[in-house]
């Protein structure tokens, strides 16, 4: 992605840490945590890889196409799972956004050659609005309404899962802004 080097490395660290925590949630005793953790880990690590500054690692065009295929498949899986719950619709939008950004990055060299353009496409704007609203909604739910006993394991903490979703939403906004 394009942008300041220090901000890119912070985004890489944030997304990688989020992906690592989501892997920890795969061992949770709570089924809901396990059900969503795999897709969220894929998103976290995928976002971390995509956010590595281009000055450090400029992937070849085929790598962006691999990202597009992986996240396209994740979007199809989320579409299939969406019949069970609304949260999978968010995974669908997130996976689609990642595939969209990967395709845009694969096409970027050709776009730079033309130096013409009318700004951000409408789809980028729609995704920005969606993720900005998601960040606000998730952030408002971060503080629990009632205090109860803390779950035993780190992978069973719903407030940490919400914090990870918030971090990934903020990361998605940052990545879309660089498009």
Topology:
Blueprint: H1 5-25, H2 31-51, H3 61-81, H4 87-114, H5 122-140, H6 158-177
Give the CA-CA distance, first to last residue.
8 Å
Kindly state the mean pLDDT as a whole number? 82
Strand content: under 5%
Return the string of H and E elements: HHHHHH
Radius of gyration from the alpha-carbon trace, in angstroms: 17 Å
Brief description of this entry?
The chain is an all-alpha fold and 179 residues long. Helix content is 73%, strand content 0%.
Give structural notes.
This protein has 179 residues and is mainly α. The protein has one domain (5-177). It has helices at 5-25, 31-51, 61-81, 87-114, 122-140, 158-177. It is globular, with a radius of gyration of 17 Å. The N and C termini lie close together (8 Å).
Which characteristics define this entry?
single chain; 179 residues; mainly alpha; 6 helices
